[in-house]
Design goal:
The protein is an alpha/beta fold. Helices cover about 50% and strands about 20% of the residues. Helix 18 (about 490-500) packs parallel to helix 20 (about 520-530).
Length: about 625
Amino acid sequence: MFAVVTLLIKTESDGMTFFMGNTTSRLVFFDVLAGMQSFKWQQWLGKLAQHLLPSMGLQEQYDLLQQEISDLKKQLLEAENELRITRHAFESQDGILVTDANNIILKVNSAFTRLTGYRQDEVLGMTPSLLKSGRQNADFYRKMWIELREHHYWQGEVWDKRKDGTIYPKLLTIRAITDDSHHVINYIATFSDVSQQKEANENIYRLAFYDPLTQLPNRRLLMDRLSLALVNSQKNKSYGAILFIDLDNFKTLNDTKGHDFGDLLLMEVASRLSSSVRQSDMVARFGGDEFLVILEDISSDEQLATQGALRVAEKVCQAIRHTYELKGYHYHCTASIGISLLSGGNNNIHEVLRRADTAMYHAKQTGRDAYCLFDPQMQAMIEHKAGLEADLRVAVNQNQLLLYYQIQVDAEQRAYGAEVLLRWLHPERGLVPPTQFISLAEETGLILPIGHYVLMSACQQLKAWEQSESTRDLVLSVNISIRQLCQDDFVKQIKDILEVTQVNPSKLKIELTESLVMDGTSDNAKKMLELQQLGIHFAMDDFGTGYSSLVHLKRLPLNQLKIDRSFVGNIVNNPNDAVIVRAIIAMAAALDLEVIAEGVESQEQMEILRQYGCKAFQGYLFSRPLPLEEFHGLLH
């Protein structure tokens, strides 16, 4: 059939010539087929039959030609369907642009107009360069055309400009159309607006790597950047630094004003930090009220790099120190900063962070609103403290804590009581004094089980002393911490201990430091009063070192004031201390409170105290703290 059609098209008739070849467009072929049912076509068909089918009968010739016509009609229908599909595909949601080999626009679809704002009549004869936004440079387009010429295909993201001037990203695909000789005759470009997809991807990226509150990089992105900074430090042989920043007393703002005020503060701090460093430096929110700054390439000299990091830390402290206005509320904030240098020799990011964190806590311990450079000695102290904490937990469970007793005497140096003092018999360190582990116990919360153990042991000892005439009148003083007193069930704990031991409550005296009592809440005063009503006595320890007022002293259920050893030790040589001691004794008498002086080490000190009216004493003049058996020997 195709041979017949080809011969037919090459035959001239009535001065009209039709040519069918591979380079003829499909649309031209459709025009030829559309004329096959015309009158002239039937004439040509008859002439063809006369030339090609002379040996056939008329009926046979007719049947054969009818079959040919039927087949051609079928092909025409298929071609029309294919053209219809092509036309609908051309009018897709994606923009389509067709150019000739010289990149002159020949045709665009309606999606092109919708996406770019240009009508077809506005772009015909133009080149696609009118869509350029300027975001991509000449090198970008040069590489694109190289790939198109080599592979007849290119795909990538391009930022183009609409007719109204808005710039948007699009995914562009360009295909080159070639003829039989492999020469490019057309380019077909299809593209889609990827603004929403790009925005969604950016949102996902920001959620993964940025803090949603402050818009700063989060810990995940920080760790990546820090790792890269260490690599660059080693490669460039230069020093950098990290600043570990922790806001002082941030929890107080959250607790008093609410988390919305805390969030406002964090956002403002983030802004001030970003303004305090170079654009190349990174400011990140590490978590909670902690921020971290990475300073890269400060100097190749370690000393100069250290000085540079310290200058930035001072600048950051000053920036944070300025007053904040949070919804009309003026708030003053400070920060503690730890600094650790970055160098190629240390490529462990966790070690760098640990050093900066250690330095930051050292800055807090020095009084806050400060910065501190990491020193290896700090790490040694941290490790020693961690080891001591682990050992202290073992000591609590294995009964390594011992009770020592220091005698308390009256004006005639007769024993009337004792103070229980805690000692730790460490299997390797030996006898550890309380100054080395009590504060650690407070920090870790171990003071609660330790304090309960001391109270229980003291009451058991009082019960044992009741059995002997020489000890049944002794009063035993026990120190408690603020964490113990603040427990909701503290009173119940004491009552349970008294119930178990069946001891006389009047023989138990609880000592609280002056600062503890002054900082205590009204609830703590109620607990003290409830215990006092049971018969327990209360003494204010270290009196004179805090900020007591007569109002507090009058309101609190106290029985005794304990003059701090710092005044007693200088009473002989320092007139000011002597005046203070005399004033304390006189004030206690006016408030009907007992007085005891601790730290008495000489007979001269005792005589002066006695002259001032003090009637109870404690110190090395009478005895050091002793184990129970030695204390009993001292009594006898």
